[in-house]
What does this fold into?
Amino acid sequence: GMSQANNVMLDSLVSQRPDGTLIVGRGVPAQWVGHGSSISVTNFPTTNGRRLNLRITSSGRSVSLLLSGQLPSGQVLFQLPSFTHNIAATSSGSINQGTGTVTLTPRTRSVSVQLRGARVQ
It folds into this structure.
């Protein structure tokens, strides 16, 4: 049912590489973008017992990520499926259009990514 789908999405919403790099947003479906919704993950365990909270919000062609709690030890890769070849601008970090990734430093607390279009794949 729906709860099962939600669990799958949350599992793929944030993951961590052995080097501490966090990958955020892979599980967010393209049709979710642009509907003014938000998705939150609380107390995600990162390295050295740190706990991180994150929230992804979407409004129109903008998708924002807000991090709170203890900062990650590595970079954050903000990587929604709808970002691929579709990023117009970002308030922070560096853009890779081909992989649809905005790479943030570990100290970045928030970022807003503007899309070229709210494409539904």
